[in-house]
Design goal:
The chain is mainly alpha-helical. It folds into 2 domains: about 15-80, Winged helix-like DNA-binding domain superfamily/Winged helix DNA-binding domain (Arc Repressor Mutant, subunit A, Orthogonal Bundle), CATH 1.10.10.10; about 85-145. It contains 5 helices and 3 strands, in the order H-E-H-H-E-E-H-H. The chain has helices at about 15-25, 35-45, 50-65, 85-110, 120-145; strands spanning about 35, 70-75, 80. A 3-stranded antiparallel β-sheet has the order 1-3-2. A hairpin with a 3-residue loop joins strand 2 (about 70-75) and strand 3. Helix 1 crosses helix 3 and helix 4 packs antiparallel against helix 5 (about 120-145).
């Protein structure tokens, strides 16, 4: 049984601090950079704390979901509202990362000793091996259709 004096089972909610940031920065334009220290002052939380990271991450997710604004971290400076070009660059990074993860997944499945697996595990392993190849083939095929950069 939980202690009845516990108000928040998972810690202090981020909502009040996220709301503060949404109110203060909800209507900023692309290319605007918000310094880390300014965010810290707005929510009265030190930049280096885990609470700060938790609140800022929740705020970034909310900005993207509700306002369509992608906030990109600029090392040592702050957060910048991404331009369309920056968004494509960020998307490309996630794309490349996902392809590496698919390759890693396939490599693990391919290197697995299937003899020691149950029938269900063997079918799952075969599926991961096969679907990884399908993903990589689809990515390579579609990439060839893109126009070459000049």
């Amino acid at each position: 049984m939980k202690n009845s004096t516990t108000i928040f089972s998972g810690g202090v909610p981020t909502e009040p601090d996220v709301k503060t940031l949404m109110d203060q920065y909800g209507e900023i334009g692309e290319g605007v950079t918000i310094p880390w220290e300014e965010i810290s002052l707005a929510i009265n939380v030190p930049c280096k704390s885990s609470r700060y990271r938790t609140v800022v991450n929740a705020w970034r997710k909310r900005m993207e979901k509700e306002k369509g604004m992608l906030l990109i971290a600029i090392n040592g400076v702050g957060l910048e509202v991404a331009s369309p070009s920056q968004r494509v660059t960020k998307a490309h990074g996630y794309y490349k990362q996902s392809l590496r993860r698919v390759k890693r997944s396939t490599d693990i499945a391919d290197g697995t000793d299937r003899v020691r697996l149950t029938d269900i595990e063997r079918r799952a392993c075969d599926y991961y091996s096969k679907i990884g190849g399908v993903f990589r083939l689809a990515a390579a095929t579609e990439q060839k259709k893109l126009p070459k950069a000049e």
